[in-house]
Each structure stands twice: as structure tokens, then as C-alpha cells.
Write a structure and sequence with these properties.
about 150 residues, alpha/beta, Rossmann fold, 9-stranded mixed beta sheet, 11 strands, elongated
Length: about 150
């Protein structure tokens, strides 16, 4: 169980001359603070140097918030996938403010409060805004959003 990406190992002797070895792999689903891999419940995994992490989302935040950031990532991605959006990064800063980057290039500023309602507003915007023209969506407002457009 000291090997990278191995969650557990069971060894069983089968009489008379067989050894049965079962192992469970720990599947990495995200990169944490550019240093470690995370499994689906937010536990840090050893990062083997040979592992290609380029396709995994990048999560970052205060060290003690690993599991909370992973849970929030899963909630956000579950909702955003309903409109085909894919998160490439999620950041929680030291004061608890959230920022998302989407595969389409958008940067989303969610703030600290009313996260679920703000993600629902984002979903509505994803349905109606021209995706190739938006740079930043700031949802830190009570009922609206500020949009920064890409320059032509």
C-alpha cells in the first residue's frame, strides 16, 4: 500500500501452492495546488512523476480545505455538465471566494455566498451568450452579472 495510486492490497494463500493478490487502484480525478492528485473524496495521492495530469482539472485552495474544494467541484461540475460545460479549474482563495475556469475559456467569479443560485445564473448565461465572445462573468451581484467581453 506504499505504491503510488494503490488504495489497498489483499494477499490470500490458496492451498496448496497459489498466492492470490487483489489490489484496488486509487483513481485520481483532479490535481490539487499543482502538487498532488486527489481521489473522488478529496484525499491526496502520491504523484508519480510518470503520471500525465494534463487532462485533469486543477483545484486549488487553502491546504486544510482539500475535501471541501473537492465536494464543491463535484457539485458545480454536476450542474454545469447539464449544459455541456466543463470546468478546467476551481479556486477557493483564503477568504473563501470561488473562481471557476471553463473549457470554453470563460473565467467565472462566484464570490463567497449564494453559490448554488449563482451557478444556476451561470447556466442560464451559458445557454444564451455567445461563448466565443465572453472573457469573464462576474456573478458576485445579488441578481445580475457583469460580463467582460473579449476584445475583437
Amino acid at each position: 500500500e506504499q505504491l503510488a495510486l494503490i488504495k489497498s492490497v489483499q494477499v490470500k494463500k490458496v492451498w496448496p501452492d497459489t498466492l492470490l493478490v487483489k489490489f484496488k487502484e486509487d483513481i485520481p480525478v483532479a490535481v490539487w495546488n499543482s502538487e498532488a492528485l486527489l481521489n473522488p473524496i478529496g484525499e491526496e495521492l502520491l504523484l508519480p512523476s510518470s503520471f500525465d495530469q494534463s487532462k485533469l482539472p486543477k483545484l486549488s485552495g487553502p491546504e486544510q480545505m482539500t475535501e471541501q474544494v473537492m465536494r464543491q467541484f463535484q457539485r458545480f461540475q454536476s450542474r454545469l455538465s447539464s449544459v455541456g460545460a466543463v470546468m478546467v479549474s476551481l479556486n477557493m482563495n483564503a477568504v473563501g471566494s470561488w473562481k471557476i475556469e471553463l473549457e470554453n475559456g470563460w473565467t467565472i467569479r462566484l464570490g463567497r455566498q449564494q453559490l448554488e443560485q449563482r451557478v444556476e445564473r451561470l447556466i442560464e448565461l451559458l445557454k444564451i451568450l455567445p461563448q466565443e465572445k465572453v472573457a469573464v462573468v462576474d456573478l458576485r451581484y445579488g441578481k445580475g452579472a457583469a460580463i467582460k467581453w473579449l476584445s475583437a
